[in-house]
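Project outcomes to date are best conveyed with an example. Our students and postdoctoral researchers have been running inverse folding experiments weekly, and each run begins with a structure described purely in tokens. The record below, which covers 373 residues, was selected by the lab manager from last quarter's runs and is presented without edits.
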């Protein structure tokens, strides 16, 4: 079993009257690619900076590999940080930038330094760039140099504060794959801060989805997307259709939920967990549209609706469907069988919507409902 590289115990950070980080408890495993994901102001960067020693917590405990480092300065912690602006020294060559940490620490001969720098430049796929200056390389290459400089001292943990934020979309996607490859090759624990859910899901072993100073849910990308437990997580990790309803008995291994239009849908019973008022969630790509007169499988959840809008977006078509209960659902339909615009569902058409109970998630609904509706 892997050990714990980073442990936060009841960590709080206040800036005056503002509570930036609210009693966070967290464990990051050895060799894990762990992401702190959330919108601006949620506390993710402040949490990262406290792990790195750039901010002191107001209260709580921070451990690195079992050592209490809560009040230690950054240079006494076995961590390195990669920032969004890279912070490369403009007057130094790529080689000198990468070697900077080794030379500063001392104790190594020039041959060993040269060998280690060569290994790092090969790792980040920049061999032959050693004599260039930062102004002679691209943004993506500068990001790789910053990564090599941070890794060369072989820290126990590498902290990354939105390092891909300055790159264009295509390069950012390429670097997501590269970062994951590099992390797997070196085996060092990465803690990554981002506001981009796709970025976090592409690279991470686990993600903590943060909101208002703490995380609302922690898990692997698949479980967070398929089984969000709060309205915030459901909305932050992609588009969700949330339908309010009330628990209305059981059917075998399923709980039955009665929606606003009296449609009854089934969900895995364990997801309801004794709650009466809930919101049933379905991702847009899980829903199938069909002619309302066609026979549907009795194994699926079903409801009726009317197409309100259709947007052809290349790989799929996005539909807005209004249910009989007045809820609006977003549906993504792959453009495979319906190849031309003439074959798409048109606004005003009535459709049947269906999805499997296993593709349904449930979040507790704090909105009051009238059980007699």
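After processing, the design step wrote out the following sequence:
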């Amino acid at each position: 079993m892997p050990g714990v590289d980073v442990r936060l115990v009841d960590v709080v950070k206040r800036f005056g009257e503002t509570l930036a980080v609210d009693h966070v408890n967290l464990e990051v495993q050895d060799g894990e690619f762990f992401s702190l994901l959330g919108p601006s102001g949620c506390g993710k960067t402040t949490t990262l900076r406290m792990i790195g020693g750039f901010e002191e917590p107001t209260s709580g405990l921070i451990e690195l590999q079992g050592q209490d480092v809560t009040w230690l300065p950054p240079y006494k912690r076995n961590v390195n940080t990669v920032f969004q602006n890279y912070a490369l020294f403009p007057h130094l060559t790529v080689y000198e930038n990468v070697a900077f940490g080794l030379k500063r620490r001392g104790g190594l001969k020039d041959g060993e330094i040269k060998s280690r720098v060569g290994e790092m430049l090969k790792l980040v796929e920049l061999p032959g760039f050693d004599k260039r200056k930062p102004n002679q390389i691209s943004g993506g290459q500068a990001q790789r140099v910053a990564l090599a400089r941070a890794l060369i001292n072989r820290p126990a943990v590498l902290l990354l504060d939105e390092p891909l934020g300055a790159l264009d979309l295509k390069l950012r996607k390429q670097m997501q794959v590269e970062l994951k490859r590099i992390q797997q090759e070196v085996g060092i624990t990465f803690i990554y801060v981002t506001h981009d859910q796709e970025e976090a899901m592409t690279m991470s072993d686990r993600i903590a989805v943060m909101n208002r100073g703490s995380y609302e849910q922690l898990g692997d990308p698949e479980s967070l997307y398929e089984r969000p437990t709060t309205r915030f997580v459901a909305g932050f990790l992609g588009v969700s259709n949330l339908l309010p309803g009330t628990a209305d008995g059981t059917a075998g291994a399923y709980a039955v939920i009665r929606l606003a239009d009296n449609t009854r849908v089934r969900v895995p019973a364990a997801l309801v967990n004794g709650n009466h008022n809930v919101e049933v969630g379905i991702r847009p790509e899980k829903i199938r549209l069909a002619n309302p007169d066609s026979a549907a499988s009795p194994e699926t959840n079903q409801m009726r609706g009317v197409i309100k809008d259709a947007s052809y977006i290349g790989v799929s078509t996005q539909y807005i469907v209004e249910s009989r209960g007045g809820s609006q659902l977003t549906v993504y339909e792959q453009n495979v069988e319906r190849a031309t615009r003439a074959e798409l569902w048109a606004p005003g058409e009535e459709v049947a919507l269906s999805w499997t109970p296993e593709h349904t998630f449930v979040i507790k609904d704090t909105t009051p409902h009238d059980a007699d509706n």
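The first strand starts at residue 4 and ends at 15. The two ends are 52 Å apart (CA to CA). The training component of this project remains on track.
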